[in-house]
Amino acid sequence: MRIVVAMSGGVDSSVTAGLLHEAGHEVIGVTLQLYDHGAATGRKGACCAGQDIHDARAVADRLGIPHYVIDAEARFASAVIADFADSYAAGETPVPCVRCNQTVKFNDLTALARGLGAERLATGHYVRRVDGFDGPELHRAADPARDQSWFLFATTRDQLGFALFPLGDMTDKTAVRREAARLGLAVAAKPDSQDICFVPAGSYADIVARLRPDAAAPGEIVDRAGRAVGRHDGVARYTVGQAKRLGAASEIDGTPQVVVALDAQARRVVVGPRSEGTTRVRLRDVNWLIEPPSSASLRCQVKLRARDVPRPASVCVTRAGAPADAPAGAPAGAPADVNVELDAPALPAPGQACVFYDGDRVLGGGFIRAGVAPEASG
After folding, report:
1. Secondary structure (H, E, C), 88-149
2. Going by DSSP bridges, is the β-strand pair 298-303/353-358 parallel, antiparallel, or unpaired?
3. Most distant CA pair in the chain: distance in Å?
4. How far is CA 183 from the centre of its chain?
5. What are phi and psi of 50, to 5 degrees?
6. Among residues 364, 343, 327, 83, which one has the least CA distance to residue 198?
7. Distance in angstroms between the alpha carbons of the first and the last residue of the chain
8. In angstroms, rounded to a whole number, what is the distance separating the alpha carbons of residues 17 and 5?
9. Is 53:31 a contact under the CB 8 Å cutoff?
10. Is residue 338 within 8 Å of residue 363, measured between CB atoms?
11. pLDDT tens per residue across span 78-109
C-alpha cells in the first residue's frame, strides 16, 4: 500500500516508517512544523520543530523514502495554542495533545494523505486498531505503561478506519528501540519528548499570561462558603484536585485542602477536602466510536485523566447528537446531552477528557464541563 507516516523526529514514528518500509509498502514521510523553528532548534524534549525535523529527514534519507515538511504553524496556533490559553482563562485544564490529534494531526493529515493517493495514515501512537464485526475499533496498547488511547478518543470512526498503529502490539519501549537499532536509525537512543511540545522549559503559565493576561491575574483562595483563606497568583496555575501552591490555605481546621473548583470570572480558587467529590459529570463535544446508546444508560469504565485508574460508571445520552464519523468542525445537528454517573465520587477537572472503555476497547468520550450534571432520568 501507499502509506503516509506522520514523522515527528522521535524514535516511535521513525520505527513506524521503518517497519512499514521494510514490509514492502510505499512509504511517504510527512513532518508537521507546528511552531517556531528557530526558537525550538536544539531544544531537548520537544517535537515537531527544530532538531526533530532534521532527525525525521535523516531517518527518511536512511530508509530511502520521500519526506515532506508541512508548515502548519498558523493552524496549530489557532486550533491548539489559542484553545489552550482560552481554556485556562475559562478556569479549565485543557489537554492540548488531544486537541492536536483531533485537528492538526488526524483531521488535516488524513486529508493530506488521501490527497496524495495514500490508502492509510500511520502514526507512532501506542494504541491498537482492531477490525471488529461492526468495523474498526480502538483498543489500548499491549504495553499498559505506554498506552495512549485516552489521547485518541476524539478520533472519528472514519479516521480510525484509515489509520494504522504499527507499535500498538509492542510489549515495551525497549523493543521499539531495539527495532530502531536493527534498522540503523540514528534516533534509536533519542530521549522521549517531555511535557507540552510548544511550552518552553515547561512554563505553560507564561504562554497563557502572554495570550490571556486575565488568567494570570492574582486573586483570592476561598473555601466552599466563600471565606477568603489565602491568595493565588493566577487561576491558570491551578487545576481541580491540586494540592500545591495553596500556601496557608493548604490546611483548614486541621484538614488538608485541595482545589475543588475554579471561578475564573471572579478570579477565585475554591478549596475543600479531597473527599468533596461528585458522582455526576457533564460532557461536551462527545465523540462516539460505537453507536451511541439511545435510551438506557451505558455501563462501562471511564478515565477522567490520562493517568487515572479506570472507574465504573454509567453514561447517559439524552438527545441524539452528530454522527460519530462526522469530520471535525462539521455542524453538530441536534446537540447531545451526555452525562456520566460515577459509582464513587471523584474530582473531575473541567477541560479534561472523560473517556469510556469496555475493557481495552475505547467506546468514545468527551470533554468535562464545569458544574454538576442533573440527575439522570430512567
Report:
1. HHCCCCCCHHHHHHHHHHHHHHHHHHHHCCCCEEECCCCEEEEEECCEEEEEECCCCCCCCH
2. antiparallel
3. 67
4. 30
5. 55, -125
6. 83
7. 49
8. 6
9. yes
10. no
11. 999 999 999 999 999 999 999 999 898 999 99
pLDDT at 202: 61
Closest CA to 220 of 171, 256, 259, 183: 259
All cell numbers assigned to 128: 491498537
Instruction: Evaluate whether 186 touches 58 at the Cβ level (below 8 Å).
Output: yes
pLDDT at 47: 52
* pLDDT single digits (tens) 238-276: 999 999 999 999 999 999 999 999 999 999 999 999 988
Cα separation, 350 vs 241, in Å, equals 11
Grid coordinates belonging to 216: 494570570
β pairing state of 268-272 and 278-288: unpaired
pLDDT for 41: 45
Q: 3-class SS at 177? A: helix
Whether the CB-CB separation of 229 and 273 falls below 8 Å is answered with no
d(CA 76, CA 364): 24
What's the mean pLDDT in 156-166? 96
pLDDT tens profile 102-149: 898 999 999 999 999 999 999 999 999 999 988 999 999 999 999 999
What cell was used for 301?
469504565
By annotation, the residues acting in catalysis are 100, 197
Query: At CA 31, angle to CA 103 and CA 170, rounded to 5?
Result: 85
Residues facing 219 on adjacent strands: 232
